[in-house]
Amino acid sequence: MYIVGLDADTRAYFTSATMIIAIPTGSIRLATPMLFAIAFLFLFTIGGCTGVALANASLDVAFHDTYYVVANVIFLPMHFLGVNGMPRRIPDYPDAFAG
Known about the structure:
One of its GO terms (molecular function) is cytochrome-c oxidase activity. The protein is mainly alpha-helical.
């Protein structure tokens, strides 16, 4: 839609309409699922920033097959859960971690 030759006013309309749709219209409740969604967005952004560093060919050679590629911030929440005793490979959280 943005490359078909629309004039600047039409593109500005569609851009602002897209941004308005993206703004949440209700109140955000910070329950556990929403906290996980916010954490995902944060971790995805951090991963994208490290991906920019890996786009440099010399850094990519140096960081190839290292934990830099997969373990920048992504495993930090899992690490804290594991330190507190959260077991792996279970379908639901134990009662101790429900809160």
